[in-house]
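Dear colleagues,

As part of the handover before I leave the project, I'm documenting each prediction I ran so the next person doesn't have to rerun anything. This entry is a single chain, and its sequence is reproduced below.
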Amino acid sequence: MSEPADAAHRRAIAPVICYPTETLPRLPDAQAARAREAWQKVDEVVVPPREAASFKVQAGQAFRISSVDGPQVGDLNLWNLTNFSERFYSGKTRALHGTHVTTGDRLWSSFPALRPMATILADSLDWYGMDGFGGSVHDVIGTRCDPYTHNLLAGGQYHHCCHSNLTRAFADATGASLAEAEHHVHDVLNVFMCTGFTRDTGQYFMKASPVRPGDHLDFLAEIDLLGALSACPGGDCSAEHSSDSAACYPLLVEVFETALTPDWLTPPLNGYDRSHGR
């Protein structure tokens, strides 16, 4: 079909930000600083390559995800520890903060709660920014590698996709059956993963992560959390995922008591009255 006469004019119309964030509540800088001043480690979990592990964090505690032995990306799920129906909402986090998150951004929970679950306190890869391909680190655009898409595109039964890893980790942490656990697994924060969209076709791409041993992403837990982290079978995601061919390494999760823990007040549930016009 031929272009209309005013095609160039229509394309030239300036965009408008969907959700201006000037009124978005943020963690005060003073609290963020206090959270990291004199923290004390109270727990740690090593996530094996091509597997997932769970961890628990109390409101007001902090947790750190670190690369330890080699470049590795991780898929993170978070749930309200006492109500698993409240979980990380990657789509709304993306709408509020952008395609990739870093220091000061918050991870928001699902409807009807829609409140901050965690705030990023520090990001050792914040220097990366946005590269010439449109790639950046820590995305909230990818869903997670999963055995269903793998089967659709390549056939076979691969069980160490992040979706299956997270399903097993949730089941182990809660006692749920695999069938029950799978319904709780949700779109992830792709920790350390370098991704974007191609300029010409708009396709989701991945490239070698800039992460190196010692790099880390620090969070303040704003509500009591159950977390699960999968060390992706794609390793640094420089070539492929959902296979056993990539070099993969463990990830480390450390939990810290902070100066904020004793008197931390969890954010309230969203103030919408849920009447939906009736």
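The chain has a mean pLDDT of 97. The chain has one domain: 43-262.

All the best with the project,
I.
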